[in-house]
Amino acid sequence: MRYLPLFFDLQQQSCLLLGAGEVATRKLALLREAGARVEIVARELSPEIQAQLDDGTVIHRAETFAEAQLDGKVLVICATDDAALNARVADAAKARQIPVNVVDDPAQCSVIVPAIIDRDPVTVAVSSAGTSPVLARWIRSRIESLLPPSLGALARFMGSKRPAVKAALAEVGARRRFWERFLDSAIPNQLAAGQVTQAEAAFTAQLAGTPSHQGRVVLIGAGPGSPDLLTFRALQRLQEADVIVHDRLVPEAIVALARRDAERIYVGKCRDAHSVPQAEIGALLVRLAQEGKIVARLKGGDPFIFGRGGEEAQVLANAQIPFEIVPGITAAAGCAAFAGIPLTHRDHAQSVRFITGHTQNGQLDLDWAHLAHGRETLVFYMGLGATRTICQSLIAHGLPAHTPAALVEHGTTARQSVRLGTLRTLPDLIDGAASPSLLIIGEVAALHAQLAWFEGNPDAAPAFRAESEQRRACGLAEAA
Ligand code: SAH
User: Average pLDDT for residues 411-435, to the nearest whole number?
Assistant: First the structure.
């Protein structure tokens, strides 16, 4: 950020304005709107400026600049067309640490004036850091059209009600939720329509009906890794939350989308190393909600697919905590799309199965005969450590050894890599593969060779392609 935006309180403060042409006239209007007292240095005043000298807040200080004019000034604006004079004034102001703006000359400025959207007391300032005032004005016009003229009245109404809300709702979070609901209610529209009596009545009713503590939990599917695969609802709920409870599969870039002041609690789990036991996570969610907090429980992928979301929802239901489930893109869908492996295909797979490859005491207790019937795509979650067992068991129960099989590592992220082989070859191709990885077995996996379009980090693309070509060659040689 090249400039720090701040809002400057100029009420009754003394400013120096150099110049009295068209630009200076506009700057004078701006300074006066902000309540400043303005001293003008210019040879000649335009009639428009002349007319403003009457009320005492604007004076014509002198015809030429002298350093003493800077005494007691909090801001200097140079709006003359004399570049040398502007530079001299700017230097003098800077030497005294007085903020100075030279119109259309960012290099001379210590402060720059943004494009302003004024819905007093709401003010939006837009800056392109001097790179393109036209762009800043274009953005301003866009924002102008978004913000109704009644916004100022709404802000004043809200300001006037703050003491009442503070008295009724002791907890900060409860007050924030009250105001969020207020903004979504009919009251802002009533105020915009000038129906002040109705708005007052609705406000009183809304405040009386707001419990001071009402926590809830939102189980949010954060998708398979790439932040832009979050749903709009996931993002919205995340930004409403007071506390974020997240685990290992949720990348930092997604957690960072929460409100800056939201508390973050990490309950990460690694394979075979559960850092916070599930029962404790459930108890934590209940406790936080009982404290009146809005809790976002962020989970990788979809909460109800191998995410233990069902168990957590049951704990909440038993404790009578209000909760909501926001679905997410599950790893199978994300990895399949980004690896070019359609999970079903008219010619190759009429169904798809999501299976856990998580081992209990090194054992994988699955109905292999049932799984090995072909024309179906098998997706193993948490199956990296058991890849060899899975492939060998499927062959032993009748799936052809040349059935295509792919391992998608870090699917959908810049680090994604795909290893393609067959049931026979894949176990020998996965050296060094890391979690999270997803195993996709079935004829559709071979379509990766034709449909892969995403190579993660574009800089790494040639290496990726060469590597996966090689894997394809060795993996599929057998199938041919
Ligand atoms: N609820 C999650 C799954 C949690 S189980 C979902 O719906 O996706 C964890 C397993 O999901 C991992 O062991 C891995 O098999 C898979 N997984 C999750 N994200 C992944 C990713 N980005 N790439 C590959 N596999 C992933």
Answer: 95
